[in-house]
Write a structure and sequence with these properties.
The protein is α/β, with parallel strands linked by helices. It is built from 10 helices and 14 strands. The N and C termini lie far apart (46 Å).
């Protein structure tokens, strides 16, 4: 039996490749479209690969027709907050330009089902916690603004042409495939947990902790960390809901529990048995003390509950990618 094909833009990246794995295990054929600007060719393992830029609508439409794709998962984007501040034009070009092109290609080919990789960065600095889907969306950097603009484009296209959409606003993606088939790789690396593990492994300088005087229990920032395999599974659940005829929706994807930077360091030291060297630095402008998701809507709409997002599991699954052995008897 032919498996239904799903176009996965950015499918050679960290989250996109894990989504391809989950799609394949759920009975779909992932078709990866990636220009390899930040993706890795060897992460494409579960379906055909088309190397091109999503900003070429005619080429994207040709790929959709070639593989008879029934839906799209859109991950292709630039996603470094600091880079977006330094080069805002690049982010509006890649992220917003990519969305314009993709929506055009979908309309031309009659594909009307879209799962979009959005971000909690669309909320900016929250006025209350946990952050719900109705919280004010007031992003504080070009990356967050570009994602919010993409959400608005999707809603406008849905109103004009009947697009079915899921906009998944996720918090801090981390971890790696529990069976070791994929690992996290970014260049440059900016995510906290890989930086912690790289410092522990001695393959990176001591971790820089930006701010130790926040109004949190230990003075460091608190974030909601969700395992990438859980995140990928939520995309499949969202796709199935759309295929079953759901109206468009936006949901947060997190755990509802926050962990501080000091807690991440302690967990890494306990699980790996290695010290994490770190240095305190001044706060970065715009960093909120705490960001934690309200996950009730994702649970209700998608039946989604994280399976791998306990902090010890996140560390254990990520650490081998940096050459670290882990302790499975470690208690946190």
């Amino acid at each position: 039996m032919t498996r239904p094909a799903v176009l996965v833009t950015g499918g050679a990246g960290f989250i996109g490749s894990h989504a391809c794995l989950q799609l394949a295990e759920a009975g779909y054929q992932p078709v990866v479209l990636d220009n390899l600007r930040t993706g890795n060719r060897d992460a494409v393992k579960w379906g055909p690969f088309e190397q091109l830029d999503v900003r070429a609508p005619e080429a994207v439409a040709a790929v959709i027709r070639k593989h008879r794709c029934i839906a799209v998962m859109h991950f292709a984007a630039a996603a470094y907050v600091g880079e977006s501040v330094a080069e805002p034009g690049l982010y509006y070009d890649l992220n917003c330009g990519g969305m314009i092109s993709l929506l055009k290609a979908m309309q031309e080919t009659g594909v009307s089902t879209l799962v979009f990789s959005s971000s909690c960065a669309t909320y900016g600095v929250p006025d209350r916690l946990p952050i719900t889907e109705t919280s004010c969306q007031s992003p504080v950097n070009p990356y967050g603004r570009s994602k919010l603009m993409c959400e608005q484009m999707i809603r406008d296209q849905a109103a004009a042409a009947g697009l079915q959409f899921a906009m998944l606003r996720y918090f801090n993606a981390c971890g790696a495939d529990p069976e070791g088939r994929l690992f996290e790789r970014h260049e440059p690396e900016t995510h906290l947990i890989p930086l912690v593990l790289m410092a522990a492994a001695g393959i990176a300088p001591p971790l820089q902790v930006f701010g130790t005087d926040y109004n949190t229990p230990d003075g460091t920032c608190i974030r909601d960390y969700i395992h990438v395999s859980d995140l990928a599974r939520a995309h499949v659940l969202a796709l199935r809901r759309l295929i079953d005829g759901s109206d468009g929706f936006a949901v947060n994807l997190g755990t509802g529990t926050g962990h501080s930077i000091r807690q991440i360091i302690q967990a890494a030291e306990t699980v790996t048995g290695r010290q994490v060297p770190w240095k305190a630095r001044a706060r970065r402008p715009g960093d909120p003390p705490e960001l934690v998701a309200d996950t009730a809507l994702a649970a209700r709409l998608l039946g989604f509950r994280p399976r791998h997002s306990a902090l010890p599991d996140i560390i254990r699954h990520a650490a081998p990618g940096f050459g670290l052995e882990v302790r499975y008897d470690a208690c946190l």
